[in-house]
Amino acid sequence: MQDIGSAFALAFGLILSGDDGLARIVGLSLRVSLTAVGIAALVGLPLGALLAVARFPGRQALVVALNALMGLPPVVAGLVIYIALSRSGPFGSLGLLFTPTAMVIAQAVLIAPILAALSRQVLEAMWDEYAEQLRSFGAGSWRAVPTLLWDGRFLLTTVLLAGFGRASAEVGAVMVVGGNIEGFTRVMTTAIALETSKGDLPLALALGVVLMAIVLGVNALAQGLRDLAARRGA
Amino acid sequence: MFRRLFLGLGLAMATALPLAAQTQSITVSSTTSTEQSGLFGHILPIFTQSTDIAVRVVALGTGQALDVGRRGDADVVFVHDKDAEERFVAEGFGGPRRAVMFNDFVIVGPAGDPARVNGLRDSVEALRRIAAARAPFISRGDRSGTHAAELRLWQQAGIDVATGRGAWYREVGQGMGPALNTAAAQNAYILADRGTWLAFRNRQELRIVTEGDERLFNQYGVMLVNPQRHAHVKAEAGQRFIDWLVSPAGQEAIAGYKINGEQLFFPNANRPGA
């Protein structure tokens, strides 16, 4: 218990001190995870919407596959991307291993199925409700995708936040492909793992508290924006 | 309003993209002991200041660090398992190997000392007693330099650890720090490098029980990854790092790293046969 108490004190101390190293780690965490969410959203949301409205052979299998991919172990995703990006691998000439870009790729791969599967579910429920109305405007199922995404934007905020949560909490994949290089690829979760390794449990826990505060902040911000937008009827 | 959220997201993405372009940098695959003991935190800024070359360290076990070099994912390999290093050089993956420094291993154990090894100088005899008492022993089990050294000691003790596996001999397959955390939690004996031990904070009941044996000597070596094998290797900058490590300035920087006044690594680049 004493450890937990001192961790909170240490966490506040860290935040208040405006420590340079910590700021860089926090900044990189946010950049990597938000970028990964953005890229995964570009792929995952349209795919989810398409699966919600379209009916084609193999659709059910695709839905099952996406649902299963939600449980993809990060360390496995990391390993596959490690091998692909390694100098001895197929994309080795890009020189991306042990860079933040590799971490973005790993997280995007991890969360794209989550965004697709969850948005499919959310939008399918909406589509069941609105299908007739949309069809009456003469919109075919493919053309309904942008409309559906726009009308479902408030529900999709939660989907995006779920993806962000998974991305920012993830350690296995970014450790493998990023290498936890100080000042370059060290993020909150890998820093926590490192401090745990060094046996500095209070500092590790304090970093955990900081991470939770950041995730809380991002969620509150998204929720606030969403409510504001909803109230304006935008 | 909602569009602005996406705009913000896009902005965050855009700032994430320009990642390269700063001063020149090299990637060094090294061991958890050099990183977690804080040595790199002390010497790298000195090197970077004098050469303007940034050093990016990926800290792994020695076996894995050498693998990263074999795949061409690092420019320099800086590890501590002389046999494995010489194999690496002989196979043409890099080299020549330069000796840099040494420290030593210590056997750490619980204050209760069930195997009665405290104060024993003979590390091989200490392991024999631990095995005889069937006292819990944590092994790194990760092909690291420390793991290799541990296995050599068991061999010298004439003990086949496979018989104790799952019972008193426990392989954790992790780095030095996590292995020490496990030993602390289970009140077990463990072989640790002194640097990581000195920097380790979660000791609980653990303390050094055996030290000072010649067989606990731990030599570090450094090699450039073969640029003929991997054309992208930053041979010039990597070689400058190696040259600096074995130069008087680098050796002095290594000797200058201390925790609580205790020196962790002892430079010996010029000792023949190191």
TrEMBL record, chain A:
Residues 26-222 form the ABC transmembrane type-1 domain. GO terms for cellular component: plasma membrane. CDD domains: TM_PBP2 (cd06261). It is a multi-pass membrane protein. Keywords: Membrane, Transmembrane, Transmembrane helix, Transport. It comes from the Bacteria. It is found in: Cell membrane. PROSITE patterns: ABC_TM1. One of its GO terms (biological process) is transmembrane transport. The chain crosses the membrane at residues 33-54, 61-85, 97-118, 201-222. Belongs to the binding-protein-dependent transport system permease family. PANTHER family: PERMEASE COMPONENT OF TUNGSTATE ABC TRANSPORTER. This is Tungstate transport system permease protein. It comes from Falsiroseomonas stagni DSM 19981.
From TrEMBL, chain B:
It comes from the Bacteria. Residues 22-248 form the PBP domain. The keyword Signal applies. Pfam families: PBP_like_2. Residues 1-20 form the signal peptide. Keywords: Signal. Transmembrane segments: none annotated. This is Tungstate transport system substrate-binding protein. The lineage of its organism: Bacteria, Pseudomonadati, Pseudomonadota, Alphaproteobacteria, Acetobacterales.
